[in-house]
Amino acid sequence: MLICDRVLTRADLRMLASNGFGDMVKGVVDIDKKLLALDAELHADLEAELLRRGSNQANLWGINLYPDETDDYIEFDSLINIRPMMGNRSRGVDDPAVRAQVEEVVYQWTEA
Predict the structure, then answer these.
(1) What is the pTM of this model?
(2) Are 24 and 17 in contact (CB under 8 A)?
(3) C-alpha 53, offset from chain centre
(4) What gap in Å lies between CA 15 and CA 9, rounded to an integer?
């Protein structure tokens, strides 16, 4: 598990991917604190770590990063995103404004 404290290159992400899922790295973004947690078997593990560090559940969104992709670099697909009470009924991130915030944090911590 890694909480980004420096910008990660695509090569860094490929290394993380090769140690786990092969072509993908799981991540959780805190859109309020601008944090990116990466590299766990489950999004829920990353979510739990960010909650332990003081993040608010409502600000955490699960993603997958594909370091070898350009158009499909960020995949919005995680069980932790299913929040009917917040209006998010899918595994994705339904609100375009929230999606944009997630992307902003991802691009803050990774080379596009």
Answers:
(1) 0.95
(2) yes
(3) 16
(4) 10
